[in-house]
Amino acid sequence: MKLPSHFYGMVDAAFGHEPVALAATMIDAGARVMQLRLKDLPARDFLAAARAIARLCRARGAVLIVNDRVDIAMLAGADGVHLGQEDLPLDAARRVAGAGMIVGISTHTIEQARAAENGGADYIGFGPMYPGGLKNIRAGQGVENLRAVRAAVKIPIVAIGGITEATVPEILAAGADAAAIITDVLAAPDVSAKVRSILALAGRR
Hints:
By secondary structure, the protein is an alpha/beta fold. The protein has a single domain (7-203), classed as Aldolase class I (TIM Barrel, Alpha-Beta Barrel). It contains nine helices and eight strands. The chain has helices spanning 19-29, 43-60, 70-76, 90-97, 110-118, 142-152, 168-173, 183-186, 191-203, and strands at 7-12, 33-37, 63-67, 80-83, 102-107, 123-126, 157-160, 178-181. The protein has an eight-stranded parallel β-barrel with strand order 1-2-3-4-5-6-7-8, surrounded by seven helices. The radius of gyration is 16 Å and the shape is globular. The two termini are 20 Å apart.
């Protein structure tokens, strides 16, 4: 697959955002791929948000990936699901979701990246890239490890973890196809302006 944008939006309830409104803001600002990440929400509410955001994405030609939950991704009519190393195994997710659903896998090493590609993942997430971020990461992977993973796999790479608008250019230059950003976007005074600014940066790489 080819990711539709170098900005991979993260729809999260952090910083008090209402997920559907946040997704609409990102789409209006030009985001064309986003992940719905609602780890603390009850399944019923997660599904309701996913269905509403899937409708927005279909209307605007954007891609919606649901974090962790294959069942919610399917029920909401999302385009795909993103799985961590501790989530449902890739082969099981593919059997349930079918060949038409995008499946992304979080990876932290070259070995995990290769395993994801060999297992049929459509793209990988790689990180955390830098210290800080929503999870207060103490040590990041850095761009050298990103370059090594880029050399090891052919599928798209979404870099994540502590990335800011200022570090997007070096992430893309190191081989990432997209940058997933949570804190720098969700904590911005004007989310729409932040997304537009990041998209402009990515377009000038």
